[in-house]
Amino acid sequence: MPQGTIKKLVTDKGFGFIKGERNEIFFHHSALVGTTIEELQENQTVEYEEGQGPKGPRAENVRPV
C-alpha cells in the first residue's frame, strides 16, 4: 500500500491532497478510514490505495500510519 504525507487540507470543503511516492493525489473525506478530516494534520503520514474518481486519480481507504 503506498504511503504519503498530507500536503494540504481543506476541512471546510471536506477534501485534501496527499504528496505520494510518485505524485500528488486528491482525497475526499469519505475515503478516510478510522479517522476524520478534522483529526488529520498537514505533514502527517498516511497510507492509501490509488483509485479513479470522476475527475481523475484519487486516494481511497486513507488511513493514518
Mean model confidence by pLDDT? 95
Q: Percent helix among the residues?
A: under 10%
The sequence of SSEs as H and E is EEEEE
Task: Describe the main β-sheet briefly.
Answer: 5 strands, mixed, barrel
- The number of helical runs is 0
Structural description of this entry:
Helix content is 0%, strand content 55%. The protein has strands at residues 3-10, 15-19, 24-28, 45-53, 56-64. Strand 2 (15-19) and strand 3 (24-28) form a beta hairpin. The chain is globular. The N and C termini lie close together (11 Å).
Give the SSE map.
Elements: E1 3-10, E2 15-19, E3 24-28, E4 45-53, E5 56-64
Parallel strand pairs: 3-5
Antiparallel strand pairs: 1-2, 1-4, 2-3, 4-5
Labels describing this entry:
CSP_DNA-bd; globular; 65 residues; OB fold (Dihydrolipoamide Acetyltransferase, E2P); CSD; nucleic acid binding; mainly beta; 55% strand; Cold_shock_CspA; five-stranded mixed beta barrel; 5 strands
Task: Give the structure's gist in a few sentences.
This protein has strands at 3-10, 15-19, 24-28, 45-53, 56-64.
